[in-house]
Design a protein that fits this description.
Elements lengths: L25 E3 L10 E3 L29 H7 L6
Antiparallel strand pairs: 1-2
């Protein structure tokens, strides 16, 4: 079963919130109603769930985070502005 959705995102580039740019549709790899769903833009590999602190975004889940106690420090050292 293939589910097709359209995602429209308005990013505030002046605030530094533009994370990445993608072209093409997003294809869901499984039922979007299941938790832990992964997605992929056409022509790219599926991105697995993992620690987001290393990309400048503090993790929200301690079971995925590489350093839960210092997640804010790790995120700041990777570009998070703290707000």
């Amino acid at each position: 079963v293939v589910y097709t959705f359209e995602l429209v995102v308005e990013e505030d580039e002046e605030a530094g919130l533009c994370v990445e740019k993608r072209e093409g549709p997003i294809e869901f790899m499984k039922d979007p109603n299941e938790t832990g769903m992964s997605f992929v833009a056409t022509g790219q590999e599926a991105r697995k769930e993992g620690c987001s602190c290393i990309y400048g975004n503090p993790c929200q889940d301690k079971y995925i985070c590489n350093n839960w106690e210092k997640r804010f420090d790790v995120a700041k050292s990777n570009g998070w502005k703290g707000y």
